[in-house]
Amino acid sequence: MTRRRTGRALLAGGLLLGTLLATGCGVRPSAVITGRPAVSGPAQGVGLYLLAQGELVLVLRPATGDSAPANNLALLAAGPEVNERRQGLTSEVPAGLDPVTVTSAADQSGGLTVRTNTAARALSENAVDQIVCTVADAAAQTGFTNSSTPVTIVGPDGARPPQRCPIS
Amino acid sequence: MTFWRPVAAQVSGLRVRLLLAFALLGITTTAVVASGSYVQARTVILQQAQDAAVMSLTDQLTKVYPIAQLPPTQDELELLAQRLSDRESFAVVVYRDMRAQGGSALADPLTPELRQQVRDGDIAWQRVSLAGEPALLIGTQLALDRPDGTSRPSGVEVYSVRNLVPEQQSIDQLATRAWLTGGLSLLLAVLLALLSARGVLRPVRDLGRAARRLGEGDLSTRLTVRGVDELADVARTFNDTAGTLERQVGELRRMESDARRFVADVSHELRTPLAAMTAVTDVLDEEAEHLPGDAGRAARLVSQETQNLTQLVNDLIEVSRFDSGTARLALDDVDVAAAVTATLRIRGWADRVRADLPSGVVARLDPRRLDVIVANLVANAFRHGAEPVSVRLSADPDWVTIEVADQGPGLDPEVLPHVFDRLYKADTARSRSEGSGLGLAISWENARLHRHGERRGALVAGNGPGGGAVFTLRLPRETTDPGGAR
């Protein structure tokens, strides 16, 4: 009886000790620990969205004057610059996008409308994303709207349904 | 089994059990406390180091802004990596396929899961083992503010790789201290266990010793009562018990000695009137032949019974001497064969007894008592056994042995253990035998009175192979007088 009780106590003690030892000594590798959102700061210049291997990539160029949404779209239509092209950046926005006008809806939720002379329905998905994100960013930069405003592209062949920039 | 029992007793002994219990308690407590505080301290140390590193990295990164150009050139990335590297850490800056590392030749310390988390837009960190040393990886993207409060990713990821060896060292130090504390507390527990075992075991040992002494007959044994605990209670109870026992045994002894003294006194008191009666019966004996019929028979009967009574009283006096321890040996160098022959001749048995007495056996003993013993045994053989009665003497360097045998029916096995009892009558039908009933008892006492060192005289009753009782007397050849005590 006594021996069995002693045995049980020993077992319990051993288990406890084992558990504690299993916790390990020293500095153990850990899983990824997540903290606050990423470091963020101000940017200067004109923000455009180009493509790199089919992905949207933000490009900052030194400001050249007015950073109205329509100007930014004109820069986008002009395509990547030499150094950008050297780094593998491309654009699917046709050069014929310019001239464009960007109008804001009367109410805040109405979103932005981009009017162009090229066929809006013929634009590739990537081109649409480029346009939507660049316009939304530029509009947000000027303080008209926020960056997740839906954008409607209207061409001579009709209008595309309103779309939001996939990059939040 | 028999081999393990002492070991098991040792292991399950009070001392070992106490020691084990204390050690177990000490180990458990220390393990729990030390490891608990160790784990906590480690967590605190690591958390502080991590928080400080993250803080320092974010502080440094705020100086990178504003960002004016994207995509960055390789040179810009290199510059940034260099700026963010210092003595304790180095930076890795990644932009899409481009990568710059400030310092350290390590190939790629970054883990895929960390990169994924960083790409998802959070500051993330992870402890890893780099080339056997613990390191902290911290990563963040450089995001760009929008006026509306949200931010957009720039695609530039900054990682800081920080060595955790100093933290590891302080944690190791903690561990060392925890082990040390554990060892010390174990030592302390063992010491305490030994102390308390001593405190418990000493009274127990004392108690055991006292009980043994009591068992050996030292009734005056008492324990010193210390303290007021349970063991003191036990000691007190022991003392009470021993006291009661001593009192009662004393009472019994007093009563017994009173009874013996009474017998002795009565015997002595009876001697004087018996002497007078003997004188009278002597006269009566002489006159008996002249007395007619019944009167003559009565006179002879009175004379005979008076003789028996005198014999009984003399035997009682002898026995009371043995009981009081006043019996003394009168030692002499005796030729045993001659002494036995004399005994038989004096009593007129020389012709009736078949004696086998080799001469030349000399022993130091009390001749009177030898005479009493032999006479008693032979008389007994005549009285209860059947002739022929034989007396055989033999001797070796240590012992003298005399065997008295008869050819009677022998001793009943039920009688055998009581043969030497006082006033024991083997044959109840013959309740009025000629003997006093003390003869064999006196012979037995006489035999035992002879002793030399460890050797002690003995009288043993048994049955011979051919039937008939055999009484064997063994006396040491050298007897020393012990000085009166039995």
UniProtKB/TrEMBL annotation, chain A:
Top-level taxon in the UniProt lineage: Bacteria
Protein name: GerMN domain-containing protein
Organism: Micromonospora trifolii
UniProtKB/TrEMBL annotation, chain B:
Entry-linked SUPFAM superfamilies: ATPase domain of HSP90 chaperone/DNA topoisomerase II/histidine kinase, HAMP domain-like, Homodimeric domain of signal transducing histidine kinase
Cofactor(s) this protein cannot do without: Mn(2+); Mg(2+)
Cellular location(s): Cell membrane
InterPro entries: 2C_sensor_his_kinase (IPR050980), HAMP_dom (IPR003660), HATPase_C_sf (IPR036890), HATPase_dom (IPR003594), His_kinase_dom (IPR005467), HisK_dim/P_dom (IPR003661), HisK_dim/P_sf (IPR036097), Sig_transdc_His_kin-like_C (IPR004358)
Official protein name in the record: Signal transduction histidine-protein kinase/phosphatase MprB
UniProt main location, coarse: membrane
Pfam families attached to this UniProt entry: HAMP (PF00672), HATPase_c (PF02518), HisKA (PF00512)
HAMP domain ranges (all copies): 198-250
Protein's membrane topology: Multi-pass membrane protein
Catalytic activity, reaction form: ATP + protein L-histidine = ADP + protein N-phospho-L-histidine
Domain Histidine kinase: from-to ranges: 265-479
EC number: 2.7.13.3
Molecular functions per Gene Ontology: kinase activity
Tagged with keyword Glycoprotein: no
Key word Mitochondrion present: no
Keywords assigned: ATP-binding, Cell membrane, Hydrolase, Kinase, Magnesium, Manganese, Membrane, Nucleotide-binding, Phosphoprotein, Protein phosphatase, Stress response, Transferase, Transmembrane, Transmembrane helix, Two-component regulatory system, Virulence
Organism: Micromonospora trifolii
Membrane spanning residue stretches: 178-201
